[in-house]
């Protein structure tokens, strides 16, 4: 694990890597300070297509720094920010920067602490993610209100094949909202809504 100090050293070494397309720094104990240093060098990585920063301790402040670093990554297709301890404020900032990532096909924000407000922010940018095929929002704290917001965001996701919203707090009304939009997702091959609060009427 490289930690914050290693991330600082690594960012200094990556300053000339303008042709980098794949960056995986997952499971490295990187915190806010390391994320801030990485964001500085990431601004010049406009050719990056794959970014995995999962299983770190980045938090909201670190994620907000990273969002600034990702603003030039218009060609990103795979983004994994799972297990990085973010909440709604970071989800909102990340949603804002993802508006320009119209080529994104894989988005993983699982195992965070995103609740209904964060789901609403994500739903607004999801409307422009026409090419998304894989969406994982599992293990957050999204409830019925958040599920209703996600329904609106997913209306244009006709190419989605993998949807995981398991281990949230979605109840019957949220499940009903999601079912409305899923009727048009004829390409969906993987759907996981397990470990929510869905009862007989929601099923």
Describe, in plain words, how this protein is organized in 3D.
Helix 2 runs parallel beside helix 3, helix 4 packs parallel to helix 5 and helix 5 runs parallel beside helix 6. This protein has one domain: Ribonuclease Inhibitor (Leucine-rich repeat, LRR (right-handed beta-alpha superhelix)). It has a 7-stranded parallel beta sheet with strand order 1-2-3-4-5-6-7, with no helix packed on it. The mean pLDDT is 94. It is built from 7 helices and 7 strands, in the order αβαβαβαβαβαβαβ. The chain has 203 residues and is of the alpha/beta class.
Keywords:
single chain, 203 residues, alpha/beta, Leucine-rich repeat, LRR (right-handed beta-alpha superhelix), seven-stranded parallel beta sheet, 7 helices, 7 strands, 10% strand
Topology:
Blueprint (H helix, E strand, L loop, with lengths): L2 H11 L8 E3 L7 H11 L7 E3 L6 H11 L8 E3 L7 H11 L7 E3 L7 H11 L7 E3 L7 H10 L8 E3 L7 H11 L7 E3 L11
Parallel strand pairs: 1-2, 2-3, 3-4, 4-5, 5-6, 6-7
The number of strands is: 7
Helix and strand element order: HEHEHEHEHEHEHE
Name the CATH class. Alpha Beta
Portion of residues in helices?
A: 25-40%
Nutshell version of this structure?
This protein is of the alpha/beta class and 203 residues long. Helix content is 37%, strand content 10%. Strand 5, helix 6 and strand 6 form a beta-alpha-beta unit.
């Amino acid at each position: 694990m490289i930690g914050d100090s290693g991330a600082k050293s690594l960012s200094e070494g990556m300053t000339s890597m303008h042709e980098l397309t794949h960056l995986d720094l997952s499971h490295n104990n990187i915190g806010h300070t390391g994320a801030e240093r990485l964001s500085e060098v990431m601004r010049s990585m406009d050719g990056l297509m794959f970014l995995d920063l999962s299983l770190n301790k980045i938090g909201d402040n670190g994620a907000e720094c990273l969002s600034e670093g990702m603003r030039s990554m218009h060609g990103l297709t795979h983004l994994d920010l799972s297990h990085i301890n973010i909440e709604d404020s970071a989800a909102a900032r990340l949603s804002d920067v993802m508006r320009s990532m119209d080529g994104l096909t894989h988005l993983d924000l699982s195992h965070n602490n995103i609740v209904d407000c964060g789901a609403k922010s994500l739903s607004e940018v999801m409307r422009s993610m026409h090419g998304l095929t894989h969406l994982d929002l599992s293990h957050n704290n999204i409830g019925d209100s958040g599920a209703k917001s996600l329904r609106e965001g997913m209306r244009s996701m006709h190419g989605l094949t993998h949807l995981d919203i398991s281990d949230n707090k979605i109840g019957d009304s949220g499940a009903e909202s999601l079912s409305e939009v899923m009727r048009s997702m004829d390409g969906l091959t993987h759907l996981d809504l397990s470990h929510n609060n869905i009862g007989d009427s929601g099923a």
